[in-house]
Design brief:
Elements lengths: L11 H43 L2 H4 L16 E6 L2 E8 L12 E3 L4 H8 L7 E6 L3 E9 L5 E7 L1 H36 L1 H14 L22 H56 L7 H31 L7 E4 H15 L4 E5 L6 E4 L1 H17 L6 E7 L18 E4 L10 E8 L33 H11 L3 E7 L2 E9 L18
Parallel strand pairs: 8-10
Antiparallel strand pairs: 1-2, 1-6, 2-3, 4-5, 5-6, 7-9, 10-12, 11-13, 12-14, 13-14
Helix pairs in contact: 1-4, 5-6, 6-7, 7-10, 8-9, 9-10
């Protein structure tokens, strides 16, 4: 099995330290190789000088008995060749008695390979390294003799090689310690040097965790590292300027949103009186006892209907404005199952061609909230299912504990994963929760609308035909009311399956204090 390749360091600190250690290792390797080669060359030159000084004296003395070993170091090799044939050879044995200045030499029997190597040496007085089978590595030098023969003298390389190996061991230990110390010191130094950059990264990470989509946003303070002479200072100065620009843009956007909300609230409030007057006058005109032409009666009926519709729109806008302003809702024990029964009964009357199913527990499920607003949420969800699905669609309303998965029991079978759109996520407050879900097996929500389905004035009918839907505020009210109750809403949809899930805090016996939302807080 092939082992996975180790990943290179991904952080800037890791890359800097790794690069420093690699460069130091290369420098140490270069110094080590050069020093070892230089020492080896120096030792070989010293051996060559010794061999040149002897001028084959030991090799020429081998003609007489065991040879003259005076002045020769232990291990000195000598050989005499005549016409390429070794006639005599020997090696100086180690001295056993320090008072004996003439240690005898030992006669050798060379192998054919040794003889061939000695015969191949040119008699030019230059040292060459040759490996002898019985003696090991030797530095040999061949010079011409007085009798037409060739005298070969050699010195062992054991001490030189041992010296080189000791140097290699010392260098390896010293370089290893240097690498470890450099790694530790480099990590500390790089860590201190990159501390300003980590501060910039932490500040940027804090900005990314802020809810920037809506409402007032308080950006963190900038970083103090703004020295233009350093790279980190340049990054810090640019980051502070970017924070200032973003903060100014967010402040302008929040001020614009506040003005728009105040305008919507003021306009909605001011329109209620004239709309009520229009409805009253139109109703009074319809009840006139005298004869009224049919076209005038039809016009009065249209005025009455449009004024009622306009009144609902104004009421919805005013409700959203109040929720945006953080006004608290009533907190009382609400029987959610009773609200579902009432809303489903109204939906059956409004949509008799749909199949309405309920999945309710045997015991009442209660929540703490505003009964009128929760009834409006149920009505909006059921109206949405009825309006945007064809006749014969099955709509299931379920009340119970939060479901563990995306499937809705009793209506749709498990299939391909749906595209979830959690807008507010699971609420952050603690305690038990109640889930109310409205599911249908209709055509589903168009993909281009899923990301903004809970926004205001968003409608599936881009032509805004009155026959195909409402004002586009129904689901926006659902999300705002859910948020005002401390809950959340989400939708999952694909063709043949759409599920709206509403999570609300369950009633726990004591009514919590109203939780007001600050002005501009997204709901």
């Amino acid at each position: 099995m092939r082992l996975p390749r180790p990943l290179p360091p991904v952080t800037l600190r890791g890359r800097l330290i790794a690069g420093l250690l690699v460069l130091l290792a290369c420098a140490c390797a270069a110094v080590g190789v050069v020093s070892v080669l230089a020492l080896d060359r120096s030792l070989l030159e010293g051996l060559d000088r010794q061999l040149a000084t002897s001028r084959g004296r030991y090799a020429s003395s081998l003609e007489h008995s065991q040879g003259d070993t005076r002045g020769q170091s232990a291990g000195t090799f000598g050989a005499r060749l005549v016409a390429g044939v070794v006639t005599q050879c020997g090696v100086v044995a180690p001295q056993r008695d320090t008072d004996d200045i003439s240690a005898p030499g030992a006669r050798l029997t060379l192998s054919a390979a040794d003889t061939a190597a000695l015969a191949a040496l040119p008699a030019d007085g230059r040292g060459r390294t040759v490996r002898l089978s019985w003696l090991g590595d030797y530095r040999l030098m061949a010079v011409p003799g007085l009798d037409g023969d060739t005298l070969v003298t050699g010195l062992p390389l054991v001490e030189a090689e041992s010296t080189v190996h000791r140097l290699e061991a010392v260098e390896a230990a010293v370089f290893a310690v240097a690498l470890v110390l450099t790694g530790v010191a480099g990590a500390l130094w790089v860590g201190v040097s990159l501390r300003p950059l980590r501060r910039v990264a932490a500040t940027a990470r804090g900005v990314t965790e802020l809810p920037l989509a809506d409402g007032a946003v308080e950006l963190p303070q900038g970083v103090p590292y703004t020295d233009p002479r350093t790279e980190v200072g340049q990054v810090g100065a640019s980051f502070n300027r970017m924070l200032a620009h973003v903060g100014d843009a967010l402040a302008r956007r929040h001020a614009s949103e506040q003005r728009l909300r105040r305008f919507a609230a003021d306009a909605s409030h001011e329109l209620r009186t004239p709309l009520a007057a229009i409805r009253g006058h139109s109703e009074l005109a319809r009840r006139h006892p005298g004869p009224v032409p049919p076209e005038v009666r039809h016009a009065l009926e249209r005025v009455q209907a449009e004024s009622v519709r306009m009144g609902h729109l104004v009421d919805d806008l005013l409700l959203l404005a109040r929720l945006d302003a953080g006004r608290p809702l009533r907190r009382e024990e609400v029987d959610l199952t009773r609200l579902v029964l009432d809303a489903a009964g109204d939906a059956r009357v409004a949509g008799p061609d749909h199949r309405w199913r309920l999945e309710l527990p045997e015991e009442p499920v209660t929540v703490a909230g505003d009964a009128d607003r929760l009834h409006q949420v149920l009505t909006n969800l059921l109206d949405n299912a009825r309006t945007h699905t064809p006749g014969g669609t099955t709509v299931l309303v379920r009340v119970g504990p939060p479901a563990s998965g995306p499937s809705v029991s009793g209506l749709l079978s498990d299939g391909m994963p749906v595209s979830g759109l959690p807008l507010d996520g699971l609420p952050a407050t603690g305690g038990p929760w109640v889930e109310l879900s409205v599911a249908d097996d209709g055509p589903g929500i168009p993909e281009e609308l899923r990301g903004e389905i809970f926004e205001r004035f968003v409608r599936a009918d881009l032509g805004r035909s009155r026959a195909s839907g409402g004002t586009g505020l129904g689901l926006a009210i659902v999300r705002a009311v859910a948020g005002a109750h401390g809950g959340s809403v989400e939708v999952e949809s694909r063709p043949g399956r759409t599920v709206f899930r509403l999570l609300l805090p369950a009633f726990r016996g004591d009514l919590p204090a109203p939780e007001t939302l600050p002005s501009g807080t997204p709901t």
